[in-house]
Amino acid sequence: MRKNIFISLATALFLVIPLTLKNYFFHDKKSDQNNPDSSVIALSKEWKAPDTSQLGHTQQDDLIRYGRVLILNTADFFGPRGSIMPISNGMNCGNCHIDAGTRLWGNNFSMVASTYPLYRNRSGKIETVEMRIDDCFERSLNGKKLPDSVREMKAMIAYINWLGKDVDKGVKTKGSGIEKLPFLNRAADPVKGKIVYVTICKKCHGSNGGGKLKDNGKEYFYPPLWGRNSYNVGAGMYQLSKFAGYIKNNMPFGTTFTNPQLTVEQAWDVAAFVNSKPRPSTNLSMDWPDISAKPLDYPFGPYADSFSARQHKYGPFLPVQQSHKKAHP
Ligand code: HEC
Ligand code: HEC
Q1: Which residue minimizes the CA distance to atom 10 of ligand 1?
Q2: Ligand nearest to the CA of 233
Q3: Are residues 329 and 189 in the same domain?
Q4: CATH number at residue 64
């Protein structure tokens, strides 16, 4: 008797799982267009990063070129075995600012020159580019600040400012930063996300999320997604919306916004899975002096609303959004 139930259950699962998995993994692009969950990116005027071949041989040109090298190969200089000072976790800036911060929807630097110094709610301060770079050193690279006076800081800023030199103040470039994906009408699900991870991401980022070092042991071939060498809980990537928006247009590696591989659902779910894994912590006590300015998906309280920390981390975000709209119409 029990065996029969088991067999019919097994048969039912056998029939149902492949169907749901099939829908989850092989979404058909046409039906996706009618789906309010799907994201459509309209680019009216695309930003195009200036080409380094335009650079000449002045001291300033050399500084800009050096800045680009630092963004792409940060670990060679500042990683645990870096040649200048070991102040970071071994990741490169370019791991998250794709193509040295030039890729559309690849977390590019197009608007830095035109917007900084910039007031940021997280710190409650007007931040210079130096301060913003240090934020990424301390959080995304789980490390220490880079002294403002060193040539390397000046070089990274020279490069970033050169990238944005043709962007006018007040103009929002299309494809700058990270795309905001539509919210799901449910919480993002780490269990579903694990399936995405194992099927798509694991082959590069590893079964323990630790990534893969290059043979020289200095730099990553595939950067880590969790564990002690990954970004800490104060980093932007620890917010589900940023992680999901970033991977939707850039992962698996080689993907761009013109040929996304993940559905919106998969992006949120795998974000939930990765950000449910252990990673370094950091002191967040000075962040968000005005708690009502916290983003919807900021995973640590206290909050100005009554939603739980879990809902702020995984969603569903629509009710949180609606309540914020009521509070600040
Ligand atoms: C783990 C991923 C990650 C790494 C590594 C990383 N960043 Fe970032 N960075 C982010 C995220 C996420 C944002 C915020 C994007 C947003 O809010 O849209 C950001 C934002 C920035 C900004 C502000 C961009 C803007 O338009 O306001 C600068 C400048 C920056 N990073 C520089 C750096 C530098 C320099 C490094 C290396 C020292 C670095 N980042 C490493 C993830 C990363
Ligand atoms: C073919 C190998 C490959 C696959 C598959 C892949 N990635 Fe990556 N991933 C990379 C590489 C390489 C980088 C660094 C990009 C660079 O430096 O230009 C990266 C960077 C990242 C980053 C930013 C840096 C960090 O380590 O935090 C995240 C987040 C990420 N991948 C998530 C994912 C997720 C989630 C998946 C599965 C949906 C995935 N990747 C699939 C190779 C891969």
Answers
A1: 236
A2: 1
A3: yes
A4: 1.10.760.10
Same domain for 56 and 116? yes
Who contacts 206 (Cβ-Cβ below 8 Å, separation ≥6)?
Answer: 212, 222, 224
Q: What is the pLDDT of residues 27-58, one digit of tens each?
A: 433 333 333 333 445 445 678 999 999 999 99
Q: How wide is the angle at C-alpha 174 spanned by C-alphas 172 and 175, nearest 5°? A: 120
Regarding whether 117 and 225 lie in a shared domain, the answer is: no
Q: Whose CA is nearest to atom 37 of ligand 1?
A: 93
Among 128, 163, 198, the domain boundary falls at: 163
CA distance 119 to 115: 9
Question: Where a domain ends, among 104, 137, 163?
Answer: 163
- Judged by DSSP in three states, 220 sits in strand
- Classify residue 146 by its DSSP letter: P
In the chain, the number of structural domains is 2
**pTM (predicted TM-score):** 0.91
Pocket of ligand 2 contains residue 237 by CB under 6 Å: yes
**pLDDT tens-digit profile of 218-240?**
999 999 999 999 999 999 999 99
The answer on 259 and 201 residing in a single domain is yes
Cβ of 272 below 6 Å from ligand 2: no
DSSP 256-279: -TTS--S-HHHHHHHHHHHTTS--
Q: Does residue 5 lie within any of the structural domains?
A: no
Residues with a CB atom less than 6 Å from ligand 1: 74, 91, 93, 95-97, 107, 109, 111-112, 132-133, 136-137, 140-141, 156, 160, 177-178, 231, 235-237, 242
Domain extent, residue 91, equals: 52-163
* Confidence band, pLDDT 50/70/90 cuts, at residue 24: low
Which is higher by pLDDT, 31 or 138?
Answer: 138
